[in-house]
């Protein structure tokens, strides 16, 4: 185990021990709050205060290895909510309070046999120390110090900068002064604060109009999920957040944030309405193009490649319903989100819109926020679906087309901002022989093991793809081949140590070979980098495989 990983494990262990030492006091605080609420059934504020104390403990206890306490707090919170729903707090108290008392007693008892807290024994990410600052930045807003410490350490393991904020004021200050890729908000920040209002305020701050927001909570009730959805939630995460769930959530949030500015095409013969829609959407940072001539819709779509089409139903010469049907037969625009905007509000009109393939229907006149919200939700949903369609089923890595798209964007940004990019081609050695000797299921396990390892290593902003068969590709931004040679060599060694098993139970090991090329030294186009990396991959194979070649021989 490396020094960094040992430090991480020690830090998390120390946090757990500190939390364990404070648990009796926290449970005493819970007991006092419950007693006050029980003694004053007519005072809703005391019950709500008790719920806040319980809710906080519910979220962190399981994260730190005390699941029984977390489960007990969940029972208590649910019973307090049942009491709050009743018109009179005494209604249902005969069954609620005994359940609360029993759950509290179970929590106290569980302190003596709490499960040990553990972190998976795995190597840290392999990015060189000098590059560790080039990480994603996600603000986590929560008034629970233990949870903030926990999620910061998990972020450290994945090379994600988790920026903590304890309240709305601190969160808004960070949002105004820092570059953020995404935000995670705890649903319950305090008795006088609501995270749903804070989400709206963050999106109104400079540069954050379209920032992805995830809500986190130990409360997974429908009510909270609906409120989060109304506040524009991209994701809703339940505490405790396991590392693998956190990583997947971050990938989804960053895939949205790293997309180019949202592009909208408005097709309507009413120029005044188009201008109005354009102003509204551009006010939240969207790029809006207008086409008043519906006969040119296909031409305009080809030129603008929008993320969403706002389409009028009734237009001269061309019916919007027919346009929608036509686009649904096009391989390129089959999945393009389409929202109809029209003054026709009858049931027949709405049904006809959806039957033609529309995703949504917005009657005129419409409110500004309704228009913006519907557009944002549809675009985000389409991006998430596309994200899943672009990944290989076996390995979970980007397919060739999706990888090329992302590498093209990375290279364009590198040219503009003058930073290096390293591109690599990786071959699993003698893969056909593995299939022939150990069976195709064993071969699949090798590919899955390779992809699992490379997905865990390096930074989250780097891209990994399956080029085809047993060949994979990687691209590292702000890293040259000298920096990445050592990291990739360690990866090659690590992969070679993974044990695999044949269909007959035979143990074996696999290896891989890497060829690297860097922008701009080895070329400025993707074709040039691919050619150089492929040539060096061939040299690495000639050198005996199971190695990395990043430079031409002297």
Write a structural description.
By secondary structure, the chain is α/β, with parallel strands linked by helices. The protein folds into four domains: 3-113, Up-down Bundle (Four Helix Bundle (Hemerythrin (Met), subunit A)); 129-257, 3-Layer(aba) Sandwich (Rossmann fold); 263-388, 3-Layer(aba) Sandwich (Rossmann fold); 400-549, Reverse transcriptase/Diguanylate cyclase domain (Alpha-Beta Plaits), CATH 3.30.70. Helices cover 52% and strands 17% of the residues. It has 19 helices and 19 strands. Helix 19 (526-542) links the parallel strand 18 (512-519) and strand 19. Helix 2 (44-63) packs antiparallel against helix 3 (67-85) and helix 6 (168-177) runs parallel beside helix 7 (195-204).
Topology (elements, then pairings):
Elements: H1 3-39, H2 44-63, H3 67-85, H4 93-110, E1 136-141, H5 145-157, E2 160-165, H6 168-177, E3 182-186, E4 188-190, E5 193-194, H7 195-204, E6 213-217, H8 222-230, E7 235-238, H9 243-257, E8 263-267, H10 271-282, E9 287-291, H11 297-304, E10 308-312, H12 320-328, E11 338-342, H13 347-355, E12 360-363, H14 368-389, H15 400-417, E13 421-428, H16 431-438, H17 440-456, E14 463-468, E15 471-477, H18 481-496, E16 499-501, E17 507-509, E18 512-519, H19 526-542, E19 548-549
Parallel strand pairs: 1-2, 1-3, 3-6, 6-7, 8-9, 8-10, 10-11, 11-12, 18-19
Antiparallel strand pairs: 4-5, 13-15, 13-18, 14-15, 16-17
């Amino acid at each position: 185990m490396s020094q960094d990983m040992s430090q991480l494990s020690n830090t998390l262990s120390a946090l757990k021990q500190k939390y364990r030492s404070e648990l009796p006091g926290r449970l005493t605080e819970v007991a006092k709050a419950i007693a006050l609420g029980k003694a004053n059934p007519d005072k809703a504020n005391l019950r709500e205060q008790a719920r806040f104390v319980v809710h906080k403990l519910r979220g962190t206890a399981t994260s730190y290895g005390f699941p029984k306490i977390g489960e007990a707090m969940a029972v208590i919170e649910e019973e307090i909510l049942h009491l709050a729903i009743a018109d009179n707090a005494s209604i249902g108290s005969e069954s609620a309070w005994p359940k609360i008392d029993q759950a509290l007693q179970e929590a106290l008892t569980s302190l003596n046999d709490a499960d040990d807290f553990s972190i998976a024994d795995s190597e840290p990410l392999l990015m060189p120390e000098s590059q560790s600052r080039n990480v994603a930045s996600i603000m986590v807003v929560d008034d629970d110090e233990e949870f903030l410490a926990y999620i910061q350490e998990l972020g450290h393991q994945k090379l994600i900068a988790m920026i903590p904020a304890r309240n709305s004021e601190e969160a808004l200050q960070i949002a105004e002064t820092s570059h953020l890729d995404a935000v995670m908000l705890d649903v319950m920040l305090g008795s006088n604060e609501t995270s749903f209002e804070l989400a709206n305020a963050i999106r109104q701050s400079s540069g954050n109009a379209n920032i992805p927001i995830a809500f986190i909570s130990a409360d997974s009730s429908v009510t909270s999920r609906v409120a989060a959805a109304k506040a524009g939630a991209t994701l809703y995460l339940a505490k405790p957040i396991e590392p693998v769930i956190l990583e997947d959530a971050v990938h989804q949030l960053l895939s949205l944030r790293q997309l180019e500015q949202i592009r909208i095409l408005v097709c309507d013969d009413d120029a005044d309405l188009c201008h109005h829609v354009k102003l509204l959407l551009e006010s939240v940072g969207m790029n809006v193009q207008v086409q008043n001539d519906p006969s040119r819709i296909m031409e305009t779509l080809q030129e603008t490649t929008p993320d969403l089409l706002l389409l009028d139903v009734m237009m001269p010469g061309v019916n919007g319903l027919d346009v929608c049907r036509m686009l649904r037969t096009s391989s390129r625009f089959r999945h393009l989100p389409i929202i109809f905007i029209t003054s026709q509000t009858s049931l027949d009109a709405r049904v006809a819109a959806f039957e033609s393939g529309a995703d949504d229907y917005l009657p005129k006149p419409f409110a500004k926020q309704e228009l913006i919200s519907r557009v944002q939700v549809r675009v985000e949903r389409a991006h998430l679906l596309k994200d899943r369609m672009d990944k290989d089923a076996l390995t979970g890595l980007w397919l060739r087309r999706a990888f090329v798209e992302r590498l093209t964007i990375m290279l364009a940004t590198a040219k503009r901002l003058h930073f290096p990019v390293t591109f690599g081609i990786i071959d699993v050695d003698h893969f056909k022989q593995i299939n022939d000797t150990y069976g195709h299921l064993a071969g699949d396990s090798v590919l899955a093991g390779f992809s699992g390892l490379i997905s865990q290593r390096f930074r989250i902003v780097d891209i990994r793809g399956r080029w085809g068969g047993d060949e994979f590709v990687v691209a590292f931004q702000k890293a040259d081949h000298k920096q990445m040679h050592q990291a990739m060599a360690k990866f090659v060694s690590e992969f070679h140590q993974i044990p695999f098993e044949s269909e007959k139970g035979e143990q074996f090991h696999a290896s891989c070979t890497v060829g690297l090329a860097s922008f701009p030294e080895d070329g400025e186009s993707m074709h040039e980098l691919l050619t150089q990396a492929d040539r060096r991959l061939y040299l690495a194979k000639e050198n005996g495989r199971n190695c990395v070649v990043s430079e031409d021989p002297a």
